[in-house]
Structures are given as structure tokens and as C-alpha cells.
Amino acid sequence: MKRKFFDEYMKLGLNITYYRKMRGYTQEQLAEAIDITPEHMNRVENAYTGASLDTMFSIAKVLDIPVHKFFEFRD
């Protein structure tokens, strides 16, 4: 992953983690629900890799939130 947007990927991962935990999912459960590996889910949440739009839409659908919520970054 390019380091150019590392801060944004970190914030994105933190938002995914926040909403995942609010809905009571583990990384493994969410990964299974959207058909990715738990390792990939971990890498997305910890900013080691990005996520495709398909993955982002799938996460949002499972967590029952609008996808834009993942991109609401607070400083």
C-alpha cells in the first residue's frame, strides 16, 4: 500500500473497527459474512492494505450503516 494516504487508511480502519464492534462482530465473523479472509479483514482495519469498493459496500451492508460513515474522519 502506498504510504501517501496512510493516515486516511488508518482512520478508515478505525471507523470500520468502531462500527464492527458496535454491531457485536468479531473480525472473523465480519470477514466470513462478506466472504474475505480474516487476515484480509485485519489488514484493512490496521491500514496494511486498502479495500475494494465492493468490500466496503459489503461491510456497510452487513453492519447496516451507510458506506459514507467509514469516511467521516475526525481530527
TrEMBL record:
GO terms for molecular function: DNA binding. SMART domains: HTH_XRE. It comes from the Bacteria. Keywords: DNA-binding. Residues 16-70 form the HTH cro/C1-type domain. This is Helix-turn-helix transcriptional regulator. It comes from Zongyangia hominis.
